[in-house]
Amino acid sequence: MSEAYRAAVADQHAAGGRATPITATGLVRPGDRDDQVPAIARQLAAEGYLLDPVAGQPQATAAPNLYTDAVADAVRSLQRDYGLAEDGVLGPRTFEVLNLGPADRARAIAVALERLRWLARNPPGTRIDVNIAAAHLSYYRNGVLVDSRKVIVGKPGRETPLLSSPIYRLVANPTWTIPKSIENSELAHVGADYLASHNMVRRGGYIVQQPGPDNALGLVKFDMVNDQAIYLHDTSAPGLFERSQRHLSHGCVRVEDALGFAQLLAEDEGVADRWQAASASGAQTFVPLPVRIPVRLLYQNAFVDETGRVTVRTDPYDWNGPVARALGFDDGAHTRTQADAIDIGP
């Protein structure tokens, strides 16, 4: 990423400072006309997205204010790089990314390099890395990336913390003991009918959701050793993985196709038969792992992706500011994610 940082600094000097912000005017779809299209096209060209593959020159729009397919294709490439839905629609989050200039990119990469400097130079060869900023999981086995998938992490105000904590067992068909913080807020006014309809009972002073496909933890929990009650788990709302912005939980990490991931870990750890029997039982069952698998919860909104390219995403928790200022950067753009009230799940 050092080369990417130097390139971003060079782009910053060439640009001569921060450009005039592009103002969002509502949703703009391909075929629409909007006064912001020329500015959008110029920004896409400056970022290298709007190029003619033959002539190598920025494409010109057929009509200045027409949002053409060519510009929409460039927007889709931008959206893909920043982890947004690749729909070509210009909305608030895409405008937010369009307003990130070379200075913001250099700042993000510098912070990412500093965060990398804090990590152990030789991490465990077998481990799970969760990039909270990108809402993405990577599973390494003996130093080789063998699996990656989307995750859902904590929303602003309920941020997933930075920590290192191993998975020590799989829990099939887990129950969920609802934290008092959720019971006293989202569930403060629910009655017996609500509890019954959600397969919940009161037990020992807590509300407990019984095992089943509608359980907020889904059908598997990956128990971890830490004092913050943070763990990986399945979900009863898999449709949320289709969102580009997946900072939605109360702090724990929901894993896409968690049952498939549990099967993969069980096979790698030699407990596949025990796991399958536990899963099929329908009852909460614990399957210890012979060797604990380290998990690192990291925050990198600039990183090298699986194709070897440096990718910069927004800063969903607005955590980069203090690090950037300590490195001598100005405050920069703020791209903190808005918290959505989606469900009560952890």
Overall number of strands:
16
What's the order of the H and E elements?
HHHHHEEEEEEHHEEEEEEHHEEEEH
The CATH architecture name of the largest domain reads Beta Barrel
Q: Return the CATH class of the largest domain.
A: Mainly Beta
Count of domains: 2
Say which CATH homologous superfamily of the largest domain is assigned: L,D-transpeptidase catalytic domain-like
Radius of gyration: 23 Å
Broad shape: globular
SS content category = alpha+beta
* First-last Cα distance: 34 Å
Show unreliable segments: 52-58
Largest sheet: 11 strands, mixed
Strand content: 15-25%
What would the average pLDDT be, to the nearest integer?
A: 86
Helix share bin = 25-40%
CATH topology of the largest domain: L,D-transpeptidase catalytic domain-like
Number of helices: 10
Pfam families: PG_binding_1, YkuD
Active site: 233 (proton donor/acceptor), 252 (nucleophile)
Domain L,D-TPase catalytic: 126-274
GO molecular function, one term: transferase activity
Report on this structure.
The active site is at residues 233, 252. GO terms for molecular function: carboxypeptidase activity; transferase activity. This is Murein L,D-transpeptidase YcbB/YkuD. Pathway: Cell wall biogenesis; peptidoglycan biosynthesis. Residues 126-274 form the L,D-TPase catalytic domain. The protein is an alpha+beta fold and 346 residues long. It folds into two domains: 2-110, PGBD-like superfamily/PGBD (Muramoyl-pentapeptide Carboxypeptidase, domain 1, Orthogonal Bundle), CATH 1.10.101.10; 124-175 and 211-298, L,D-transpeptidase catalytic domain-like (Beta Barrel). It is 29% helix and 21% strand. The strands form three sheets. Strands 1, 2, 3, 4, 5, 9, 10, 11, 12, 13 and 14 form an eleven-stranded mixed β-sheet that branches. Helix 1 runs antiparallel to helix 5 (102-118). The radius of gyration is 23 Å and the shape is globular. Mean pLDDT is 86; it is low at 52-58.
